[in-house]
From TrEMBL:
Pathway: Cell wall biogenesis; peptidoglycan biosynthesis. GO terms for biological process: cell division; cell wall organization; peptidoglycan biosynthetic process; regulation of cell shape. GO terms for molecular function: ATP binding; UDP-N-acetylmuramoyl-tripeptide-D-alanyl-D-alanine ligase activity; UDP-N-acetylmuramoylalanyl-D-glutamyl-2,6-diaminopimelate-D-alanyl-D-alanine ligase activity. It catalyses: D-alanyl-D-alanine + UDP-N-acetyl-alpha-D-muramoyl-L-alanyl-gamma-D-glutamyl-meso-2,6-diaminopimelate + ATP = UDP-N-acetyl-alpha-D-muramoyl-L-alanyl-gamma-D-glutamyl-meso-2,6-diaminopimeloyl-D-alanyl-D-alanine + ADP + phosphate + H(+). Residues 320-435 form the Mur ligase C-terminal domain. It is an enzyme of class 6 (ligase). This is UDP-N-acetylmuramoyl-tripeptide--D-alanyl-D-alanine ligase. Its main location: cytoplasm. GO terms for cellular component: cytoplasm. Residues 24-68 form the Mur ligase N-terminal catalytic domain.
């Protein structure tokens, strides 16, 4: 398959080509590069130019560079540009410009990646689908996804994220979606934004990239929903709200044997679907997905049927049977909203003890201590039997808990992981959750390696 010819890539970037090459893909990583890929020598922790020779040895058709690297022949197949990242952005814009299908963009404080994956699964059988890999949603992930997009794609699903103010609008304008969905707005990255209202304004900026007469899919029932509505109105978008109320509405979500049986009303139609999870927050996002796909022209009932094929990704709420316990691995993301959803999911499960293993929630700004302590008052905590925690911030939650709910506490996730087998017992239902940088995933790894042992009686 031809994705980029040397001439097309040169025209898109304004670069100078060496050789008459054809690329079948685009890669930024020599560890996963495939023969025929165009290797993009981005500068990150290390300069990608150091890996050009290796990329060519592995079969790359050419490399996008700002200079001829050492060890690379002068006549090597290259696309030479002044700066690599802006050239990748140009390649992404050109990839978007030549695609005639429908583009759906997704952002939100929680659930971007799982919602993107839901949409991809739901669209099965409705044409050629292109979607972002993993969590490729930043300043290089979005243009890379667009540059990889086949021009005959019927649907593209682009994930857009942010860490600082002003990041979403340029990426949205690059993606030019026909439909843009916000999963939710929560207290994440508060260090950069100061208040949840600032986060809402940044998320709402996704609508600035909408194509003419585009559709904005927003969550209802949030304190900041009016802010999102204002951004959609400013963009001249068709507005569809989703949630337990709104134009797209979750009518029922009932847990049945580790699954959710759901009913919703979308575009005036009643649709039934099943999800391979018990988290109702996933069901709400599924309703948003169906609304987005309907706006993009997909068959809603067919999409609902394929939602059952979606599985939560590793570290994002996937449920697995591990020895004698049921493990919910949600160790790669945490803020007060997503933690509340995880606790509610655990509280709704039937079985043995409900055990939570928590790592710090990071980037919450000056109220971080109060936000951790407040988790002790979450209504779902009533149904939680034991809480183990790691990190200085989670110490504040630990100290606020009733004594009978306190399990072990450790300064680091590594220390907690070292005694993972002591934290759980056969029959337990275990939720592991924390910000990715808290490294509480080490506890998940330890549980998988060791199985599970006796229930702990000691306190930390």
């Amino acid at each position: 398959m031809s994705l980029w010819t040397a001439a097309d890539a040169a025209a898109a970037t304004g670069g100078r080509t060496q050789g008459d090459w054809v690329a079948s893909g685009v890669s930024i990583d020599t560890r996963t590069i495939r023969p025929g890929d165009l290797f993009v020598a981005l500068r990150d922790i290390r300069d990608g130019h150091e890996f050009v020779a290796q990329a060519l040895e592995k079969g790359a058709s050419a490399a996008l560079v700002s200079r001829i690297p050492e060890g690379v022949p002068d006549n090597a197949p290259l696309l030479i540009v002044p700066e690599v990242l802006p050239a990748l952005e140009d390649l992404g814009r050109a990839g978007r410009a030549r695609m005639t299908g429908k583009v759906i963009a997704i952002t939100g404080s929680v659930g971007k990646t799982s919602t993107k994956d839901m949409a991809r699964a739901a669209l099965a059988g409705q044409g050629r689908i292109h979607a972002a890999e993993a969590s490729y949603n930043n300043h290089w992930g979005v243009p890379l996804t667009l540059a990889r997009m086949p021009c005959d794609s019927d649907f593209a699903i682009i994930e857009i994220g942010m860490n600082q103010p002003g990041e979403i609008a340029p990426l949205a304008r690059m993606a030019r979606p026909h439909v843009a969905m916000i999963t939710t707005v929560a207290a994440a990255h508060l260090e950069a934004f100061g208040a949840i209202e600032g986060i809402a304004h940044e998320k709402g900026a996704i609508f600035e990239g909408l194509e003419a007469i585009g559709t904005a899919i927003i969550p209802e029932e949030l304190s900041v929903t009016p802010i999102l509505r204002d951004h959609a109105d400013a963009a001249g978008a068709i507005l569809v709200g989703f949630g337990r109320d709104g134009m797209a509405r979750l009518i029922r979500a009932q847990a049945e044997g580790g699954m959710l049986s759901c009913r919703a009303k979308v575009s005036g139609e009643i649709v039934d679907f099943t999800l391979q999870t018990t988290g109702t927050h996933f069901a709400l996002n599924a309703v948003g997905v169906l609304a987005a796909l309907a706006a993009a022209g997909a068959d809603v009932k067919e999409a609902a049927r394929h939602l059952g094929d979606w599985q939560p990704p590793k570290g994002r709420g996937a449920v697995e049977e591990l020895g004698g316990i049921r493990l919910i691995d949600d160790a790669f993301n945490a803020n007060p909203t997503s933690l509340a959803a995880g606790l509610a999911m655990l509280a709704g499960l039937q079985g043995g003890r409900r055990v939570v293993i928590l790592g710090d929630m990071l980037e919450l700004g000056p109220d971080e201590i109060a936000l951790h302590r407040a988790v002790a008052g979450d209504p779902a905590m009533e149904a939680i039997d034991m809480v183990h925690a790691a990190g200085p911030l989670m110490r504040h939650l630990y100290d606020a808990l009733p004594e009978e709910k306190r399990g072990a506490w450790a300064k680091t996730s590594a220390e907690l992981a070292a005694k993972a087998a002591e934290l759980v017992a056969p029959g337990d239902i275990v939720l592991v959750k924390g910000s990715k940088s808290s490294k509480v995933s080490a506890v998940v790894d330890a549980l998988r390696q060791s199985g599970q042992g006796p229930a702990p009686q000691q306190k930390g």
